[in-house]
Each structure stands twice: as C-alpha cells, then as structure tokens.
Amino acid sequence: MNRRELLAVPMQSSGAMDVQSGVARRAGVLWCTRHRAAGVGGPIADTAVVVIHPSSNFMGHYALDALAECGVDAIGMTTRYIGNEAMLLLEHCVVDIGSVVRHLRNEGYRRVVLIGNSGGGGLVALYQNQAEHPTITAPPAGGPPDLTRADLPPADGLIMLMAHPGRNIVLTEKLDPSILDETDPFRRDPALDLFNPDNGPPYSPEFLARYRAAQVARSERITQWALAQLAELKERTHGRVDDLPFVVHGTMADPRNLDLSLDPSDRAATTQWGAPDVANLIPASIGHYTSLRSWLSQWSSSLSNGNGPERLQTVKAPVHVIYGTADPGCYPGHARMLYDAVPHDNKLLTPIPGAKHYLFDQPEHKRACCRLIADWSQSLA
Description:
Elements: E1 4-10, H1 22-27, E2 29-35, E3 47-52, H2 64-69, E4 73-77, H3 90-107, E5 111-117, H4 120-132, E6 157-161, H5 167-174, E7 179-181, E8 184-188, H6 205-237, E9 245-247, H7 276-279, E10 289-291, H8 292-299, H9 308-312, E11 319-324, H10 332-341, E12 347-352, H11 363-379
Parallel strand pairs: 3-4, 3-5, 5-6, 6-11, 11-12
Antiparallel strand pairs: 1-2, 2-4, 7-8, 9-10
C-alpha cells in the first residue's frame, strides 16, 4: 500500500522577509510528508498527528509509517528553518506550526495532535501556550512575528516524545563553563573542566554546584554580548544590518553524559554524537553555529521564550510525556519537568524501558511507542 504523499502547506506571512533558503522563501511553502492510514487516495483518518522539530527534516521521520499502520494520519513537518538552525527564531517556528494546523483543520481532521520530538518538545509547548493565550508580540531581539496577531489554532493534544524541556534549558545544561575565551576552545579553567580526571566522574556535589552556576553565567555573558553587538550593529550600519553570525564552542558538556549516578537511567555514558569529549567540540552537535538574534530567541537561558515547563504551566490541552529509559540526551528528569509543569490532571508520563533517543535498531520499541501514541491520540474527545 502506498501511504506516503507530499503535502505543501502555504506559509503565513510575518510582515517582513525572513532570511533562509532563497527557494523556500520565494515559494512561501512549508513542505511536509503525510503517511495515510487508508493509503493515498483513501479517506483521511479522524486523527492527524504532526511530528515536529525546529530545524530537523522530519519528512522522513522514523515513526511516520508505523503511526499510519496504527490508524492515524502521520505528518512529518518542516519549518522554514529546515537544515538552517543558525538563523532560527522560535517565534517563526510557532507561526509555521500554526500554518500546518490550520491546513489540517481545513482538510477536515477531527483531531490534530502535536508530537514534539527531541528539540520539538519545548517548541510545541510554546505553540500551544500561545495558541491558547497569545502574549508574545516580538522575539527577544524585536521585529516580527507578533504571535498575538498570528493564526494559531490550538491543537487537541500534545505529546512530548524523547523530548528535552527546551533549547535554552538543554544548551545551558550542556554548555562547557571551563572555556575562558569564546574564540579559543582550548583556553580552559581546569577547575571547571568536565573532562579533567581530577574533577571526576563521579562528580562531587560541590563541583556540580560550581559547574552549574558557571554554565548559567557563561550563557548570560553570551546573551549580554549579543545584546551589545546588536546595539553596536544598529549604530554602525544605521539600521541596515540587523544580525551577525558567530560560533559557540563547547556545547556538549553535561555531567550526566559521564556520571550515570546523576539522573539515573538505563543510558550509556555517551551522547547522540558519540563520546562526550568529542561531541563537545565537533560541528555536528547542538548550538555551535548561531546568530545574535537566533541566540536570544532559542539558546539564551534568560531571554528565550522556549522554556517548555514555563509554557506548559497555562496549557489546557491534554499532554502525554513519553521518554526512553536508555536515552543518552533526554533524561527522566527532563520528562518529569515537563509532566510536573502541566497544571491539570489530563496528563500522562510513560517510560519506554530500554528505548534510546531515536529508537534506532529498536523495531519492537518503535512499534510499541507508535501504538501508544496512536491509541492516546484517538482517545481524545
């Protein structure tokens, strides 16, 4: 049976031209794949589930076909920032989700459920928060979009799947505080170096307290520098240039990746990108390439709007938090943060024993997870 089809969703205008791929910008289309429970050409299902990440290409997401086999229509969406994390503004991602939800509503789906996978968890929390109670009139650096004027239809439910609580939270937890010079990843304070064997693992409570405080302090230094750079840029260019790129070194230094006694689970002492000391420096891991405005929107611990637990505190929609007990990057503590933030009782917290972050080479876990998602989504009123 042919289940997969291409879905072209018209992009909402933000009132200004956002910088991304020239083709995507001019086309004004968000590309998604839809896996149909009844097959291409058949009727739509009652329920559509949308798998979401701010920048990853989820058109080929591992769960789509398995979800369709469970009786729901599964959509793997992309935002305007597909493959372009460095320019990403979370607020524009919210507008893009609104475009997809509106498109599906217009097609006749009775239920639309948002699945925030990995970095999508904080984003869908932000979306539902603004769909139900729009308050954000601009990103932290100013300019469009104004979410109080965007078309943001509320979803019928949220699923946090192997999700962390938000990009600003997770990067701060992984930011290497031993780096003394933002231009030189090898100038380090040995007393704060996670990879200095004199410090551990295991890591003492005293070291961890100093380490976590230094991580927050480094994030705030970058935030204040970015704000100052934006002000200088406006003055030097008379407002003709409103952003600049920069590099952040050391973004994969969470003590939990090496000390398994912290937030204990079934995980191995590694990361999604391999050994922690390698992942800390290589280009592939999170947050290395960004811009001034993007840092403030998605990575700043103090200014980003993407703090998932904070956003969930006012959400009325049902929420299901699903986590893998062998996930090396999203921990039981993350799942509990999201679950505890939901203010009502229409919520679930479900572990999948032995499941890793992407369920790679775990077909039984994938089937069980997709059945869980489909059954819960179809049960919503």
